[in-house]
Amino acid sequence: MNTFFCSDNSRQLGEEIIGTANNYETYILIECPTPWHNKAFYSRWVPENLQKLVAEIKSQKLPISFLLIANELSHKKKETTLLIYQKKIGISNGYRQQEFRLENIEKVATTIKKWLWRRHHDCELEIPKKRDILVCTHGSHDKCCARYGNPFYFHTQAAIADLGLDNIRIWRSSHFGGHRFAPTMIDMPEGRYYGNLSRELCQSILTRTGDIKSLRQVYRGWGILPKPLQVLELELLLKYGWKWFNNKVAAKIIDQSTDNSTVEVELIVEEPYGYVYNYLAKLVKNEAKTVSVKSSCNATQESIFVKYALDNLWLTSQSAINYTA
Asked: Where are the domains of the chain?
């Protein structure tokens, strides 16, 4: 019997978690009752028209992540929720949130096509902005997401209720990467990834209180940023504290060595009603922390995951934002 658990193995190796958030322009989240197939969109409740659309879009290598989501009401409702998160253009703090309530899951593919063609949607809801917490519980894809994801999902669901956080919804989610960091979650609409989570740290993340330094162990990175820049963003987050979450950013890779051992980046930070800061940084491959590890419980061989360290950081300019009435 195979008793290998990739999450346990990663923790035992002390693998650094930052810089592992996926960087997508769009997330399309489709409510679909569990259980889910190992390949989520082959699940029994997913209609053929949706399977074909997802396969077609994936074949075009577009930066879109399709996920199935569910909660305790998904089996009972007579409607299907479709959530689309689109990365904001320019300096931003995450994704634009759109929500659709559809008659059934068979209507999802048509609605997505209309959205891609930018046509008007009668079924789009005008809703107050909410945080959507996605917890991977896709145990048929990787057993760590069942072993650690399921208990964490139920705990977080209870914590949200106990804390009276009416602006936060929690969803089970199909695989979004990083089984070896289970329990792992995404906090939308910002698109921040977390892993190796505990109950105590989950409450800090939900309420944005507590010891900010504890995030170093669980913060996978901000998904709107390229992976090397996620390392820089964490250092600034730890420096400025929870108020950092109110900022907007824009980033670019200025130069990258052919072997990816060094990366030069720029990060522009805009504070609310404050200042704009320009940071330049050099990131270098951290040989001591780069690891060879099995990425999932079912992996047949190890993969190398390059880790970066902040080598130099310069604040090149700062200016006041000119707000006009």
From this structure: 6-217, 227-320
- Residue % of the chain over a pLDDT of 90: 78
Write down the pTM of the prediction.
0.93
Alpha carbon 218 to its chain's center = 13
Band (78; pLDDT cuts 50, 70, 90): confident
Find the helix or strand (DSSP H, E) in which 69 lies. Answer: strand 64-70
Query: Are 94 and 188 spatial neighbours (Cβ–Cβ below 8 Å)?
Result: yes
Burial of 242 (0-12, 13-18, 19+ CB in 10 A): middle
- Kindly state the helix (H) or strand (E) to which residue 318 belongs, with its residue range: strand 308-320
Burial class for 209, CB neighbours closer than 10 Å (0-12, 13-18, 19+): exposed
Under 8 Å CB-to-CB from 117, ≥6 apart: which residues? none
- CB contact at 8 A, 35 and 86: no
Q: Kindly tell me if the per-residue pLDDT of 276 is higher than 50.
A: yes
Rounded average pLDDT over 104-115: 94
**153: Cα within 13 Å, side-chain hemisphere:** 23
Residues 6+ apart with CB under 8 A from 141: 36, 38, 39, 40, 174, 175, 179
Give me the CATH code for the 227-320 domain, please.
Answer: 3.10.450
Q: Where is pLDDT greater, at 75 or 100?
A: 100
Helices (H), the chain: 6-13, 48-59, 108-116, 143-144, 150-162, 199-207, 227-240
Q: Hey, which bits of 156-274 come out as E strands?
A: 168-173, 185-188, 192-194, 219-222, 248-256, 262-270
6-217 CATH, one of 3.60.15.10, 3.40.30.10, 3.60.20.20, 3.40.50.10860: 3.40.30.10
pLDDT at 46: 95
